[in-house]
Amino acid sequence: MSKIAFLVESHFFSKHVGVRNYFLSLVALLEKTNHVDIISCYRDTHGDLSYYKIHFKNRNFQHNNGIAESLRLESAPAKMMELYGAKLTGRTVTENDFYYCQIGGGIIKEQYDTCFITNPWLIDHNERFPATKIYGIIYDTIPNEYAVTKTLVVMALATRHTRGFAYYMKYCDHIFAISEQAKNRFIRFFKCSQDKITDLPPLIPNGYFDYVPKTEYSGKNIMLAGPFDLRKGLKSIPAIVNPVGDQVDNLIIYGDIRCSLEDIITFFDEIKVKNIVWYPKALTTDIQASFEISKALLFPSLEEGLGLPIIESQLCGTPVLVRNQAPMNKLVLEGGFVMEDDELDKASLALESMLQNNFDKKALSKEAAIRFDPGKILEIFRSLDSNL
């Protein structure tokens, strides 16, 4: 058994949903056989680092990826934004769901065997964390590439990534990327040695570790996961869905708004379906129940470090339709489709086929459980550190 620290942002509960889901799943995986602390650090008025342990008051915090309760909205598209404005009262996670406890006497006395730095942009110092082994996690280099090659300027976030990546290169004993694509991009962008970095197999979110799926259909429903973000392909969704919109019983959406008000109003004006069920905040059980009653997950994201909703959907037995971009296209299992950027009409035909056919959800769920077995990640960790 090792004593492990996961170093997180101080306000990790309020941002970066996918990142939070990923590292909380690693915590759940490793704490089965190790002592794991989640810690954060602040700079005091003198500029010195102070460390705090974060304790959860409710273990469901991890299972539900930091969501305290679901907020469910249902209406025709034309009424949805009015309903959103009136009903946005669901409790979100706050400091009341966990508490901070300062580590008195300094972090060194904790004598951690291992520290996982959960994201590069939390680093604002140039001091090695006092643990025997330090590992850094990389999700993607998208901000860095956008700042250099794309029209979307994200220099501030790119700078914070770069600062953290430099820390990884200097202090970390090894770096883990959440996909082969993320690893290759990091090596190309930062000239990292192949021996310094390893890509991890796809990770099942911890809310699915003991999940037993239901496999019965309940109507012709389509799922969207976190679509209200231009990087998630928001503007392409109406063109894909509308040709089959009259065949759709419910368009089920989870995830809050990460685009402009104009963009989301335009989406609801353009989408042609009878009914929408939207969870701006969703507990894991509600997400799973929604996947279980759906015929397909439409996930036209333009770029992803991994694509956790693709994994979740298939664990629930629901086939996926994704853009033909790595690493997303490498996660697609039996019954799924990949689409090209300029062939949205073919994506609509694929979606229609998925709506009309009764797929073997039970077989897909079993295939996904084997393909995305979290034990494969433990094997990689233990090949580098036998104590994990």
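The record above closes out task 2.4. Task 2.5 opens with a second protein, given below.
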Amino acid sequence: MNTSSRWHSPPAIRVSRALLSAVAVLVNACGGGGGAPFAETNSASAGTAALANIQIPSYVASIYHLNTQVLDVLPQLRISARLAGDVGAIQGNFIQIVAEDKDGIVKSAEIVTTPGSSTVGIYITFAADILPPKRYTGPLRISACLDPACTQRLSGTPFNVPYDITVLRTIQVDFGSASSSPTIAGSANVPNEKIFPIFLPEGTVTYAHAIFEFFSAPGPLPLASVSLADPRQLSMQFPSLPAGEYAGVVDIRASGFSPMGRSMDRTEKYSITYIVR
């Protein structure tokens, strides 16, 4: 098992004759990169208890990359199954879910049961918004175990779920530094225009604009605009100001269609410091 991104919560599902009330458990989520996707651990079958009738979907989704704004959340992956076999053999034990993937995209999971029913649901939450933009594909291997080390697995596990997740770039302005709160220099007592390269969201952008929401200097707000023509640029026009340091927030918005043809509407805010000398 890869252990470069592994965590787990205290187990929260205990098997009982009533097959539990609805509860959830955070998984051991294992990720990493390089080498073989998964390493086998020595494990034994947990008696004859099993997960059966596992409905294994394929997971295809896209998300725009996280910059300065909290934006997309990938939908949960839901897997349905049935607790079968000699459930009495594991009575009193906790069931834990171990999820492994080579890309480190799994954030958490929960396993849910319904009172009086053998049906269980496994819900996987992804953390792709923190990953660099690119396409991530592979199998997600899921095991149901009686211990965190997964030395006792329920029959029917592990099983693989294919995933195909694309992390897309969103609005990014090249201010000449990696800061999301850039400093811009200007000359005193004359209007100043500043132009910066801008990257708009991947896909087809049909509309883009920028506007100053706040500027600490008195008088009208500076003007800001986005050019859709190549080379794409963000233009800022500052009024004539005396020497000093001014703060402002510029809001950039772009809309259109993602590479998957879905409607896309992205916004990004930059807090700037305008220094006039």
